[in-house]
Amino acid sequence: MNPIAVLTGPTGTGKTDFALRLAREFPLEIVSVDSAQVYRGLDIGSAKPSAAIRADVPHHLVDLVAANESYSAGQFVRDAARAVDDIESRGRIPLMVGGTMLYLRALIEGIAPLPPRSAALRADLDAQAAQHGWPAMHARLIALDRAAAARIHPNDAQRIQRALEVHAATGQPISALQANTTAPMARKFVVVALIPGDRARLHGALEQRFSQMMSAGLLEEVRALYARGDLTDAHPAIRAVGYRQLWAHLAGSYSLDTAVSRAIAATRQLAKRQMTWLRSMPNIRVVDPYDAQSFVGVREALIGAFSLF
């Protein structure tokens, strides 16, 4: 079977633009690897391709679920496998594009057999965190699962909650369950990562990109989500970078200027985490998106996976 091509990299490095250029040359369909683009209503802040672009180049795993629903890495793997089968059955080429490293790791390395999420357990953990704080919940996790706690920041509420939820549901550490992962797809992956050599240039680009999102109506998009009444900052969709900070502004936690500054800082931190993870990943081709020959490098690295020449 042909290998599966992956184009990844930190946020704001032009992955979509590169993919669309490739689609002009090859019979590609894009499979999104983005945890924000799966949610309907998260358009501007997730840099979701427009309807016109998606009509021109088919995109999969976009607008899958409502913003008040949850979507897991396990669901992503299942949906991605189905999308790949569908695309290949029509004689076309799937190109995985995106920077959600949890999804990418689950796809390539496999995913642990974890229990489904429990609304009751999560509500109980949220209530405890509201009383004691997430660092205190992290301290509890250290006592239950030191290996998992070592990988999770004391303020990473989502991952702390999930680790404690899994332990409460199964009586086993999440780290032990994660050790039993199996590869979901018996396929080779050809991975190209856009990693800038100039960190300062990336930071400037991320600030400019967020400013453009604000000009395009991101605050109004978040305000519409806030006004729905069925969402809170505990929903995974609202935890996305940019949405979380603007939501806090609308809730009266801080000014708009502070929200924008925090969103830009969080975007830079996200990009740093993405690059750290990618640099630890074996057997990938790294291309600097700011290099004049970057597209040629991406094309040459992926062309073998396309199996057309």
Q: Could you explain the architecture of this structure?
A:
With 309 residues, the chain is an alpha/beta fold. The chain contains 14 helices and six strands. It has a six-stranded parallel sheet with strand order 3-2-4-1-5-6, sandwiched between helices. β2 (28-32), α2 (51-56) and β3 (59-60) form a beta-alpha-beta unit. α10 crosses α13 (256-279), α11 (218-228) crosses α12 and α12 packs antiparallel against α13. The chain is globular, with a radius of gyration of 20 Å. The two termini are 16 Å apart. The model has no long low-confidence stretch (mean pLDDT 93).
Secondary structure topology:
Elements: E1 4-8, H1 15-23, E2 28-32, H2 51-56, E3 59-60, H3 73-89, E4 93-97, H4 101-109, H5 119-132, H6 134-144, H7 146-151, H8 157-170, H9 174-178, E5 189-194, H10 199-215, H11 218-228, H12 243-250, H13 256-279, E6 284-287, H14 294-306
Parallel strand pairs: 1-4, 1-5, 2-3, 2-4, 5-6
What keyword list fits this structure?
14 helices; 6-stranded parallel β-sheet; 2 domains; 9% strand; Rossmann fold; Histone, subunit A; alpha/beta; 309 residues
Mean pLDDT: 93
Major β-sheet profile: 6 strands, parallel
Q: Give the spatial strand order of the biggest sheet.
A: 3-2-4-1-5-6
> What's the domain count?
2
Low-confidence region ranges: none
What would CATH call the architecture of the largest domain?
3-Layer(aba) Sandwich
- In CATH, what is the class of the largest domain? Alpha Beta
Helix content: 40-55%
